[in-house]
Design a protein that fits this description.
Layout: H1 2-16, H2 37-47, E1 62-66, E2 69-72, E3 77-80, H3 83-86, H4 95-105, H5 118-128, E4 137-141, H6 144-159, E5 163-167, E6 197-200, H7 232-247, E7 253-259, H8 274-284, E8 288-292, E9 317-320, E10 331-335, H9 337-343, H10 356-371, H11 374-395, E11 399-405, E12 408-413, H12 424-436, E13 439-440, E14 442-444, E15 450-453, H13 461-476
Parallel strand pairs: 3-13, 5-6, 5-7, 7-8, 8-9
Antiparallel strand pairs: 1-2, 2-3, 4-10, 9-10, 11-12, 12-15, 14-15
Length: about 475
């Protein structure tokens, strides 16, 4: 009788706490020959900057990658839902991108752009074909921070104005030059403050003072359902106009920077129509609109190649990075000939911008996106993913908001029955369990309570189903 009861209890426990089966994948990882965890602990403690921190209680040593999969030093496989912070676009070590780099590395590494080399021109021709209107001039740089820094210079050079506006909780880099653009307190050094940078009220459909509806399959509960522009977009735009009329010299603004969907802030979308109205406002005050496509570009949102194309206007400047090189250091700024001409008032040079290796990688990435129809995959898999997340939300009250578009999604975790962010300790426990069950996911948001889902764009339905099973199991294992 006791054995029967014990077996019954075991079966009940197993039903409650089970490990979802990871999809099959035909690759045997290479043997790991690097330093031990203990050795990396010592090196990190003594020689790596303390701003570099471990995401997990038990640190991961990532040893190898293949498409949507990553392997640790012990050979364990993980589904990558974060893509190296939205950077691995077409897949880890994608064979076509790897082949292009291997071919180029045996031909020419570096000359700087004082000489012409073919890969630079081949790549620029392909990249510029992806842009509408008068966006015809490309600057190639090395990171998103560098791209946004250059965009500030371009806007000030062209307009002759100094003041720059961005949105609260936005992230545009953390160098000295763009720290004023980044309105995320966690990235602001306490003794660095720039004059001439302003942060406008965040138009947030979930926690914002007027709420709103957004361009997503998932809406905030009890949100409006406006057929066109959201009724709240005028209210948020009015707050931007108040900033322009009170804090900036009349008609003397240089630029407004905005992400099409805020990435670091947990895939936060704005009420429908807001960005177009913000564009119209900034233009009427003499400024330029800069679209930060560092995370939303290259088809990630599904419907369009660039996030701004969903908004009904063409920016003056576009910045991009991350997925542009599938993990290879590469970024770009695209603008008009008129704006670029104003920049020619002084010399400009970038040692590594557009180097042969980066150009070869960038060109291969564009070719893979086209050949493998990854924009459409983002649309289809993104829709399926968000539908399944919405089902999870129905059974787990810890999920306050499901949001996003394409394969740029976020789950805002809360104290059930409120919109208060989940406690840091609870979030970390769930985050750790998701990893232990075989999925690597991102975290973000103002309170670090948002699960960020931005995987390589090659994921399939089986991967989504596995992810949902893991999330479901992780939520079941923790009381909230």
């Amino acid at each position: 009788m006791a054995n029967k009861a014990t077996k019954c209890c075991f079966n009940h426990f197993f039903r409650r706490f089970s490990t979802p089966a990871i999809p099959a994948y035909n690759l045997i990882p290479k043997a790991y020959t690097g330093p031990s965890i203990a050795k990396t602990d010592s090196l990190k403690l003594n020689h790596i900057s303390p701003v570099v921190y471990d995401l997990y209680k038990k640190p991961l040593i990532i040893h190898q990658g293949s498409m949507q999969w990553l392997y640790d030093h012990e050979g364990r496989r993980y589904l990558d839902l974060f893509g190296g912070i939205v950077t691995v676009s077409v897949g880890h070590c994608h064979p076509k991108v790897s082949s292009a780099l291997h071919e180029q590395i045996d031909t020419l590494w570096h000359t700087t752009n004082i000489y012409r080399h073919p890969k630079l021109y081949e790549y620029v021709e392909k990249l510029i074909a992806k842009f509408p209107g008068d966006l015809k001039v490309v600057y190639l740089v090395n990171s998103g921070t560098e791209a946004n820094d250059l965009a500030v210079v371009l806007a000030k050079a062209f307009t002759g104005n100094n003041d720059v506006i961005s949105l609260q909780s936005g992230y545009h880099g953390c160098s000295y030059g763009v720290m004023g653009l980044t309105s995320t307190q966690a990235y602001r050094q306490p003794n660095i403050s720039h004059a001439g940078f302003y942060n406008a009220l965040l138009p947030d459909p979930y926690r914002g003072i007027w709420g709103g509806c957004r361009d997503s399959l998932s809406q905030v509960p009890d949100a409006c359902s406006c057929p066109g522009d959201c009724v709240t977009s005028d209210k948020y735009a009015h707050q931007l106009s108040e900033l322009l009329e009170n804090s900036v010299p009349a008609g003397r603004v240089a630029a407004l920077f905005a992400e099409s969907i805020q990435g670091v802030n947990g895939a936060l979308q704005f009420p429908k129509g807001y960005l177009r109205k913000a564009y119209q406002l900034i233009k009427s005050y003499g400024g330029l609109y800069v679209a930060d496509e560092v995370q939303t570009g290259f088809g990630r949102t599904g419907d369009t190649f660039w996030g701004f194309e969903n908004q009904g206007f063409t920016p003056d400047i576009v910045t991009m990075a991350k997925g542009i090189g599938n993990g290879f250091p590469l970024a770009a700024v695209v603008t008009t000939k008129e704006i670029a001409a104003a920049h020619a008032q002084a010399a400009y040079f970038n040692t590594f911008g557009g180097n042969p290796l980066a150009a070869a990688a960038g060109k291969a990435v564009l070719e893979v996106i086209e050949k493998e129809n990854l924009q459409e995959n983002n649309k289809v898999m993104g829709r399926y993913f968000i539908e399944q997340l919405m089902e999870l939300q129905k059974i787990h009250p810890v999920i306050g908001d499901v949001r996003g578009k394409g394969l740029m999604l976020g789950l805002d975790l809360i104290k059930p029955g409120t919109k208060e962010p989940m406690s840091v300790d609870q979030f970390k426990n769930i985050f750790e369990t998701i990893k232990d069950l075989g999925v690597l996911i991102g975290r973000g948001g103002r309170w670090n309570n948002v699960l960020r889902i931005k995987p390589p764009m090659c994921i399939n339905k089986q991967d989504v189903d596995f992810s949902i099973s893991v999330l479901d199991e992780a939520f079941k294992r923790h009381k909230y």
